[in-house]
Amino acid sequence: MIYNCTGNAYAVDATKWKKWDNGTIISPRSSLVLSATSGNMGIEITLQENVYATSQAWAVSNNTEAIVTPIMNKDQFDMCLEAINYISKIGYIGCQSGEMRQMFALYPDGSIRLNGNRDDCLTTDHKSNMVAVALCNGGVEQRWSFNRDNTISNLNSGLVMEARNNYLYLYPSSLPRGSQEWQAWFF
């Protein structure tokens, strides 16, 4: 519910919010963030601890459409991410113009979805550090940040995507940040 926050009934600092660059809206007073959860009656907005989930990402915009694009290596323009036969692995292979498995939908909530099936999201597998494909669930393992240094990081773990042995994994960023050619991406 939205309340009229005028008068003496509310502490002034309880009505102030901050929006971070990554889309998180936080109450400085409580350190809780706005979170949207789906239910039978629609979407419920609550305050929760910040875990960097996609359900905690917000955009100040009327545009909720995804950007559809291949994700290419910054230093090797002919190498792209690809959903391998729409199974759980994300590969790193030569770019092919118009290849549907190499087209990703980048959403304002920080999720990266397969354009051919937008119910599937790039997901971290914490056991193997592999980036995989799984049903979108709004969780922390599916929220990504496109950083100024051309790395793509999982906001929860802070690890960045890195291509190794033709697959995509999560690793600590190399120093200086993003200097490792296998960690730099563009779209």
UniProtKB/TrEMBL annotation:
Regions that span the bilayer: none
Listed name of the protein: Ricin B lectin domain-containing protein
UniProt cross-references to Pfam families, sorted A to Z: Ricin_B_lectin
Species assigned in the record: Heracleum sosnowskyi
SMART domains membership: RICIN (SM00458)
Domain of life: Eukaryota
Domain Ricin B lectin, first and last residues per copy: 20-147
Gene3D superfamilies according to UniProt: 2.80.10.50
